[in-house]
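Hi R.,

As promised on Friday, here is the backbone we talked about, encoded as structure tokens. Could you run it through your design pipeline when you get a chance and send me back a sequence?
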């Protein structure tokens, strides 16, 4: 007795964890700087932590009002109807809900390469096929409508990541509109704004209200620092609203996650500080790292170092965990998440030492 043929399904490769690396290298976890998973170096909002404590003794009950309250609060924030907000376990959960709502067997999705692995994984779970559009490294991985449309073949969902992971590049709102106009009425353009807070461009959410073929993903994992709770959402066209009840996992998000998200939304100072630090740190990395970088609108910077595996390995040995982008199809690139104002310069100094020692023939 075996599972079905899953040979097409590649497992998700996460950034390396602190405990994992510390154990392997015999290092003290407290001495490690973890810049591999685009997490918030300031931690969660203290208000969110307080909300988790306050509601901990109620977790024997299914989440009901917290989910409703969060949906309503998000709808108010974005000026949409509550039915248009699909709360989910991480934005990844929303990707699954959209797959379930959109993909019939044999339908396809169009995803960026390099890009976030879960779009394709989710499509395949739902018996969909996957096509790719290529982002060009010699062009700063630029994301414009033409690049996507050249590869477009009437897929059911077209994914756009803005800011893009792992490059940090954005797609302008006008390009997203051009793309949505040029694709078939039955194609949903999904704009993944997991890093939207860090960018200096507007959200695509107003487009969702104007038209019926654009949806937007958002998460509490990055700017809000709640990655461990798994809480995110999508904003979908009004005509998609009632599909949520038909595709979601019962009690889609957990009680503590909803409570923490509600509190985090009110803690504007925490988000503002997180965004400010990320913007400072991405400038710092871009200016100071001795390697060519891509301009980033996210809380990370992609750098071409020549041999990602060797650099990531050497960095780990010295207590700095960064992301080897080989699994993104970029074996010459590393992705460095933005850290605090003390961690970031330390990490860059370590990386510069390594780049000088390995001398891989790539210069800033
Ligand atoms: C981190 C990330 C997400 C979602 O993360 P969740 O933790 O599931 O909310 C979605 N898209 C991209 C591009 C990401 O980097």
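Update: got your reply. Pasting your designed sequence below so it's all in one thread:
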């Amino acid at each position: 007795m075996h599972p079905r043929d899953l040979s097409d399904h590649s497992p998700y490769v996460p950034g390396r964890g602190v405990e994992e690396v510390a154990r392997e290298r015999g290092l003290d976890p407290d001495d490690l700087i973890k810049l591999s998973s685009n997490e918030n170096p300031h931690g969660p909002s203290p208000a969110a932590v307080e909300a988790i404590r306050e509601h901990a003794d109620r977790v024997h009950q299914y989440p009901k009002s917290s989910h409703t309250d969060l949906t309503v609060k998000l709808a108010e924030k974005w000026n949409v109807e509550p039915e248009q907000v699909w709360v989910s376990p991480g934005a990844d959960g929303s990707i699954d809900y959209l797959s379930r709502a959109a993909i019939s067997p044999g339908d396809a999705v169009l995803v960026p390469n390099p890009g976030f692995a879960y779009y394709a994984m989710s499509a395949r779970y739902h018996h969909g096929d996957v096509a790719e559009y290529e982002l060009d490294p010699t062009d700063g991985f630029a994301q414009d409508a033409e690049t996507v449309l050249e590869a477009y073949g009437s897929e059911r969902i077209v994914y756009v990541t803005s800011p893009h992971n792992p490059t940090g590049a954005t797609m302008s709102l006008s390009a997203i509109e051009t793309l949505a106009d040029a694709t078939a009425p039955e194609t949903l353009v999904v704009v993944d704004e997991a890093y939207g807070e860090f960018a200096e461009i507007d959200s695509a959410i107003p487009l969702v209200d104007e038209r019926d073929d654009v949806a937007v993903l958002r998460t509490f994992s990055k700017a809000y620092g709640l990655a461990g709770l798994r809480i995110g959402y999508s904003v979908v066209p009004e005509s998609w609203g009632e599909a949520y009840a038909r595709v979601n996992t019962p009690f889609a998000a957990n009680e503590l996650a909803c409570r923490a998200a509600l509190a985090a939304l009110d803690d504007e100072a925490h988000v503002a500080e997180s965004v400010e630090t990320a913007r400072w740190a991405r400038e710092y990395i871009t200016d100071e790292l001795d390697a060519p970088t891509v301009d980033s609108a996210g809380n990370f910077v992609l750098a071409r170092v020549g041999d990602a595996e060797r650099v990531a390995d050497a960095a780990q040995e010295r207590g700095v965990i960064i992301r080897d982008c080989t699994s993104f199809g970029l074996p010459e690139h590393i992705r460095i998440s933005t850290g605090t104002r003390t961690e970031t310069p330390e990490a860059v100094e370590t990386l510069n030492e390594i780049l000088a020692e390995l001398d891989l023939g790539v210069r800033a």
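One thing I noticed while checking it: Residues 18-37+269-357 form a domain with the Aspartate Aminotransferase, domain 1 fold (CATH 3.90.1150.10).

Thanks again,
M.
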